[in-house]
Model the fold of this input.
Amino acid sequence: MHQTIHKNLIGGEWVEGPSAAENINPSDLSDVVGLYARGDACQTEQAIEAAQAARPVWAVWTAEHRADALDRIGTELLARAEELGDLLSREEGKTRPEGIGEVIRAGRIFKFFAGESLRLNGELIPPIRQGVEVEVSREPEGVVGIITPWNFPIAIPAWKIAPALAYGNTVVFKPADLVPGSAWALAEIIHRAGQLPAGAFNLVMGPGSQVGHSLVNARQVRAVSFTGSADTGARIGLSCMQRGAKVQLEMGGKNPLVILDDAHLDTAVSVAIQGSFYSTGQRCTGSSRLIVQSGIYPRFIAAMKERMAALRIDDARQPGTDIGPVASSAQFEQDLMYIHLAYEEGGQIAAGGEVLQRATRGFYLSPALITETDNTMRINREEVFGPVASVIRVRDYDEALHVANDTAFGLSSGICTTSLRHATDFKRRSAAGMVMVNVPTAGVDYHAPFGGRKGSSHGAREQGSYAREFYTAVKTCYTAAG
Ligand code: NDP
Done:
């Protein structure tokens, strides 16, 4: 049967790629979501040229015009949240309500940055020298390369593209090869509803080894924003630094959730289940290390097992599903490998970790809770990126804090406690970019800064008004009367 190919957007035109690939539904491997172009290095260069050529045209759009464009994009995303959320759920495997929520978030992000484009204020600094005026202003960086992962196929692109455009940059966007559907739909809306000048926004779908690589190494791309794995991030960071381009990296996490004896048990269990297993555990902010004080430990484990047994793991789009399938066969294999490894290292599979059969063939895995682990095991050092949580038993708060901070990562951290003293101390001393008290480590607001420390992030924060640090270049001007 003939299928329409979803094309790349280069210089305002939809163009076929040198090849195309099927986008497969992980809930039902016989379901082809669509056929999507796969670009190469040559197409990426064309997109970069188009973005470079569009710079002066985009630069003369007033802040109000840019705000209106972003607002129209946000309005359409919100109006089509059900339809696009369903597409997201079908291609990525998170549940339909999670998919719809993600599209709403993307719409809200565009509306937030519509307002931000009107708020790009400069500063006048009191002069040191008599009669010399000191002005600080912000300018667009130029052509921005945006490279995104598969786990949030519309929200992550939105939180990079919206500020890039709001502050006057032109964009070449390369989405994850695994899930091009939501990215293509977003690009189509940006192009049509945004009515941007040709080349201000370009989409090149295709493999990271070609499209991503070309984007990272192109002289004209002045800034690269990346979210994905630590290994790829490190390589991209080096390449950008070598050629003097600005780079922002959002990478992995090994996020701790501390549960103290004085925690409210129901709250702690809800926070752990939500943070560890929802969105199939495929979140960089997911709670993968549950650090539990010995007094509450037996009650917490028993309650976790009970709640986990009631979770419904099924087709992502089926009403009532709590947890959809794993997104891909590679991720499925990685999850199973880590569960096996944890067992070999001495961990006990207290619940889940089983491959499940459902009405359709898909990557179904029951969330795994692994007990009897310590913080030196690989299961507690490396990012799994699946519905897998390991438990580390600790004596007291001080040990919990030490274990929580003993990691190469530092994205998000959490604590469940009713003690103001411990909550306050944890907020101060946790070595993470985002700290949660009695709320899940995953799940953040779109208008607040997002990012981590150590191996989790590099460069300026994303989201909220902090996004301007990455997407603008600061200029300081000194003027004296001539
Ligand atoms: P990657 O880091 O490989 O991919 C992220 C993005 O970078 C994708 O768009 C990818 O393209 C692109 N990319 C890959 N190689 C290059 C390159 N050489 N130059 C430029 N861009 C490149 O992550 P994966 O999607 O392959 O996932 C692998 C693992 O990464 C997961 O199992 C998980 O552990 C972790 N991960 C972490 C995320 C986080 O938010 N912390 C998000 C996603 C993954 P393409 O899709 O074509 O490969």
Summary: The radius of gyration is 23 Å. The chain has two domains: 5-251+447-480, 255-437. The pocket of NDP is lined by residues 147-151, 174, 176-178, 207-209, 212-213, 216, 227-229, 232, 235-236, 251-252, 284, 331, 334, 383, 385 (CB under 6 Å). The chain is about 40% helix and 25% strand.
